[in-house]
Amino acid sequence: MDFSFTEEEEAFRKEVCDWIKKETPKRWLELDPLLWEETDESWAISREFQKKLGQKGWLAPDYPKQYGGLEMSHIKRLILAEELSYNKAPVGIETEIAVNWVGPDLLLFGSEEQKQKYALGVAKGDLVITLGYSEPNAGSDLASLQTTAVEEDDEYVINGNKIWTSYAHYADYCWLAARTDPNAPRKYDGISMFVVDMKTPGITIHPLINLMNRHSFNEVFFDNVRIPKENLVGKKNNGWYELMIALDSERSGVGYAALFYRILEELVEYAKERKCNKDPIIRQKLAEMAVEIEVSRMMCYRLAWMYSKNLHPNYEASMSLVFLSEMMRRVAQVGMDIAGPYGELEWDSKWAPLRGKIERLCLNCLSIGVGGGTNEIQRNIIAQRGLGLPRK
Amino acid sequence: MDIGLSEEQEILKASARDFLARECPKKLVKELDESDKGYSPELWRKMAELGWMGLVFPEEYDGGGGTFLDLVVLFEEMGYNILPGPFFSTIVLGGLPILKAGSEEQKKKFLSGIATGELILTMALTEPTASYDASAIAVKASPRNSDYSLNGTKLFVADANIADYLLCVARTKETANPQEGITIFVVDAKTPGIKCTLLKTLARDKQNEVVFDNVNVAKENIVGGLDQGWPVTQDTLEKAAVAKCAEMLGGAQAALDMAVNYAKERIQFNRPIGTFQAVQHYCANMVTDVDGARYITYKAAWELSEGLPATKSVAMAKAWVGDAYQRVTILGHQIFGAIGFTMDHDMHLYYRRAKAGAIAFGNSNFHREIVAQELGL
Ligand SMILES: Cc1cc2nc3c(=O)[nH]c(=O)nc-3n(C[C@H](O)[C@H](O)[C@H](O)COP(=O)(O)OP(=O)(O)OC[C@H]3O[C@@H](n4cnc5c(N)ncnc54)[C@H](O)[C@@H]3O)c2cc1C
Ligand SMILES: Cc1cc2nc3c(=O)[nH]c(=O)nc-3n(C[C@H](O)[C@H](O)[C@H](O)COP(=O)(O)OP(=O)(O)OC[C@H]3O[C@@H](n4cnc5c(N)ncnc54)[C@H](O)[C@@H]3O)c2cc1C
């Protein structure tokens, strides 16, 4: 057992940290946006930064070299992810979506051409790919999706509507799950995956305003959208199974806990400023958060370690996410406990502490634990896949 | 970074699990819990033969030269199976402080005695204030001729009823800083003036009141220096906290395994109760607590084993694992329904130990306050 990093890894950490500090624009740190809180301005900064990251091979460091990655070790990836989170680098969830959700599918099931075009584009930071999974009547029960793709000559014609499609308004492509065989005996059969150019005629984007009062997700309507046949990824009608396999290879989430280290540090400093750092209740609460954040970090380390040993996590990623999302809600509340009414202030008030981060955390935390699979679904996975509890 | 066990540790773990399952079935656990002695001399002897008592002592004292991490692996299994008896007290509260601070003569006598299974030791630390702070040490050791005389009451002393020797943490000097002027004496438990009374407890562990009434102890029996006892005590407390975490982690894993197995077998409404989502989510919460407890314990254990500063990690682990173990056993009971509320059942053995373990060596509030200090609050 060894919880330490090698000298080389420590040197890498320093290199990453220095690089981020050098490359992160001051303006970004002033804006200090949280997830789902992007504006056009912050989006532009983060796109710029991600291209630089992509050039270094640090955007998708685990990808094969010919697709823009470095085949980086899992432990170094953990370090990279931690430093990006901790130092608040301009890397948003759009990267997570494209690099960790879409990319692995493409790499596993895409044609050589598709890998060259889309996976490499993602890894270089040149492409934004939005996730077209959820529909108004297909959320957790994704397999009941109703958007259709009908083969016609050398095209597929897509009809239907997607919802909660994050950053569709900025996206170059949509990674779309659509039904190609409406008569399949099981709803899991007959789904296929496509890459759809967002400029294709027939696509309408309707903004949805999220709880942070920002435009991050959308409803996307597909009205007789015609796409070339070669934009099918993997085998026709086999999309669901490909999604499930790709999910197993998903490597996201290892850096999340580091963000909370930063938030905790900010709260500790703020507690001192507010002179409530000697209050035994506040001390207990902040310490409790420190402990939970450490537990969360160890869960992240465990994931990275399992990947590094080829141990194929099955329920561990779900556990890590559930824990982290619920912890986030408690961290937000501890912020409120320290700040009192100041915690209610929005970021643009001169009285707002930590640039209004407490108010924003209180809203933001409601999305974590829903998007990307709700905590209930994650707990089902932990119980059924992890512990082998029966479904029937 | 490698947060798994070594091959040898995996072997130790597997063999300990087999041995304890065979030699310490729940029937014996319950008998020992209900007895006054609380341990089986026969099992004790077998454990000594396996080299468990001397595992972490150097070879020159008949030990196995193992690391603190090896010991943690063993404690995890002792927690998993449940092993009543004075192993924890003897090794962690008696052996480790002597290994750290004892004279050559003391090491020869006590470490070898422990390793061969002949001696049972414990530490008499807490007093009626029930606090682990240095300021709570009031039992007085006063010079008498060339010896010392101990007076006062120690409370919640584990296994003093069967111990051959007690490490009594006593005050030898009144100073402004309560951490100064504390001395550890290794005292023969049969010395006249020692009166030991067994307390009946929730966990049915053998905690005692130990009254020292003009108990004579020789100068040579000081462990470490005169007035230098507190750092040794603190070091012992850190190791004890983490060893207890390991034991609790093992217990939590066992409670989880029992509950999950039951949920797969117990049929109500024509289906296993494990198909009900409420039960599934309880199990998911339990395994989250178990896994969370595992790595935070290992991290603290690794730091201690490597001799790194571990105050924060130890406090974090103890603050977390005690609560986690309680949550796991409470849900375990819930899943077992009425059958779990019987003496015949095994779940309560774990629940009782979760309660006791969470309190031992400082409860969560105590350790969170240490974390707060470490955060610079
Ligand atoms: C900020 C944000 C960004 C998002 N971005 C995207 C995106 O880019 N692309 C995309 O496709 N989607 C996106 N989503 C959608 C997300 O994937 C869905 O919200 C999620 O899968 C849940 O679906 P739902 O909202 O329809 O809730 P529902 O599935 O209707 O669930 C409602 C409630 O019922 C519970 N429930 C449902 N089924 C079960 C069950 N079997 N057992 C127990 N409880 C159950 C849920 O846990 C939840 O509490 C985003 C969501 C959010 C919040
Ligand atoms: C102190 C005590 C006194 C009692 N006295 C009496 C008495 O005088 N007379 C008498 O007749 N009975 C008595 N009982 C029995 C009591 O009514 C049962 O314990 C209770 O109904 C639960 O049944 P069970 O213990 O068989 O648990 P089970 O029904 O086997 O339940 C085990 C677990 O599965 C869960 N579970 C079961 N079904 C579902 C479901 N559909 N959805 C979700 N979860 C489910 C339960 O909530 C529980 O967590 C007593 C019990 C106790 C503890």
Fold and architecture overview:
The complex is a heterodimer of chains A (392) and B (377). By secondary structure, chain A is an alpha+beta fold. Chain A has three domains: 7-91, Acyl-CoA dehydrogenase/oxidase, N-terminal domain (Butyryl-Coa Dehydrogenase, subunit A, domain 1), CATH 1.10.540.10; 130-247, Butyryl-CoA Dehydrogenase, subunit A, domain 2 (Beta Barrel); 250-386, Butyryl-CoA Dehydrogenase, subunit A, domain 3 (Up-down Bundle), CATH 1.20.140. Chain A is 47% helix and 14% strand. Chain A has twelve helices and eight strands. In chain A, strand 2 and strand 3 form a beta hairpin. The two termini of chain A are 40 Å apart. Chain B folds into three domains: 7-120, Acyl-CoA dehydrogenase/oxidase, N-terminal domain (Butyryl-Coa Dehydrogenase, subunit A, domain 1); 123-229, Butyryl-CoA Dehydrogenase, subunit A, domain 2 (Beta Barrel); 231-374, Butyryl-CoA Dehydrogenase, subunit A, domain 3, CATH 1.20.140. A four-stranded mixed beta sheet of chain B has the order 1-4-5-8. Chain B has a four-stranded antiparallel beta sheet with strand order 2-3-7-6, with no helix packed on it. A two-stranded antiparallel ribbon of chain B has the order 9-10. Chain B starts with 6 loop residues before the first helix and ends with a helix. In chain B, a hairpin with a 2-residue loop joins strand 2 and strand 3 (147-158). Chain B has helices at residues 7-23, 26-34, 41-49, 68-81, 87-101, 104-115, 229-265, 277-305, 311-336, 347-359, 364-374, and strands at residues 121-124, 140-144, 147-158, 165-171, 182-188, 194-199, 207-218, 222-223, 267-268, 271-272. With 377 residues, chain B is α+β, with helices and mostly antiparallel strands. The interface between A and B is large, with 52 and 45 residues. One flavin-adenine dinucleotide is lined by residues 266, 268-269, 273, 276, 278-279, 334-335, 337-338, 341 of chain B.
